[in-house]
Amino acid sequence: MNPTFPLFHRSGSTVFVDDDPHYLDMLGMVLPAHWQVELYAHPGQFLERMAGETGRWEADAALQLDIIDQARHGQSVAPRVLRYWAQAPQRFALVKTCVIDYAMPGIHGLQVLDALIDWPGARVLLTGQADDQVAIDAFNRGLIDQYIPKHAEDIGVQLTGKLRALHQAAHARLNGMWRPTLTNSQYAWLQRPSVADALLAHSDRTWVEHVVLADPFGLLAMDTQGGCHWLQLEPADRLGELAELAATAGLGPSVCQDIESGRRLAAIEMHQQLGMPGPVPLADATPIDREGLLLGAHFRLPPGVLPGPMPAYRSFLDTRRQRVVQGC
Predict the structure, then answer these.
(1) Rounded (10°) angle between helices 155-168 and 21-30
(2) Residue 321: pLDDT above 80?
(3) Mean of pLDDT values over 306-323
(4) Separation in Å, CA 47 to CA 42, 51, 92, 160
């Protein structure tokens, strides 16, 4: 099955629940330092933490739907996404994944997960040897998204790998919300395995959130420090059109020739939508797919075109740096 590239993606919290605080301490030490991790030794405190989380997801989804609705009415999406990033720092605190131990005193992990009514994040079960079949059945019934043997010798490696895969995966509802903003041909590009793999790898090592835009086509993204970026995507068979647009924008013949030959790309539409000062920015073009049929060029957005200081994910993480076990 072809990978599905997330049209909307951001980092969020991963919450662990296990009645053994020493085990939680170990997990806190082996997981990547740049992940947002919360540790709970008591299901009751975890459920208190999750109270209202579904409503917070819905409130955030409503902000996105408002942007999408304005796009349907011909409004530019990029300025509104940037305004959303500037004004909604609470999105960083949303819980994306819950990892629950199956065997706990008086309650098992599936019962805890059942209490998360309508919460739309990913669910992972930690299992002992006696719980494997329970976990397999729960996975096959769609009650959990993954299960991990908690006493595996390489638990840190397994946990990091499987959680990273869940973190990178497209969220079905959010992808469904943003899908109508793209043309069929644009969406088809993102479904190509070589394109999806390349963009996933780039996004995972470079940014903490992104949104795929249709007009212009590409990824609007933010890094951990709050810097904003534009990865413009151009099919090779459309370079002639971009060169003509560049000529209309007053770019010289040599620049237009570079664009038509696939050496450089010009961020003409983004320059217009954001009211960037100065000349239209140019950047070297690189192939996104193995065949060189889709090209990309990276542009860093100048702070002056942003709607204000961007709340940095790194600053948010620094306020939650210590991974203290709650409920000991």
Answers:
(1) 70
(2) no
(3) 86
(4) 9, 6, 19, 24
Nearest to 61, CA basis, from 142, 144, 116, 120: 120
Look over the chain and give the mean of its residue pLDDT values, rounded to a whole number. Answer: 92
Q: In the chain, which residue ranges form alpha helices assigned H by DSSP?
A: 21-30, 43-50, 53-72, 77-87, 109-114, 132-140, 155-168, 172-178, 184-191, 193-206, 239-248, 253-260, 268-273, 313-318
d(CA 17, CA 45): 9
Residues found in the chain: 328
Using one digit for the tens of pLDDT, what is the confidence trace for 24-83? 999 999 898 888 999 999 999 999 999 999 999 999 999 999 999 999 999 999 999 999
d(CA 307, CA 317): 23
Say which DSSP state 250 is in: T
What pLDDT score does 134 carry?
86
CA angle 241, 245, 246 (to 5 degrees): 115
Q: For strands 95-101 and 13-17, give the pairing.
A: parallel
CA angle at 94 for the pair 88 and 100, rounded to the nearest 5°: 175
The closest alpha carbon to 155, from 37, 26, 323, belongs to 26
Q: What is the DSSP-derived secondary structure letter of residue 41?
A: S
The DSSP 8-state label assigned to residue 302 in this structure reads P
Cis preceding linkage at 216, omega within 30: yes
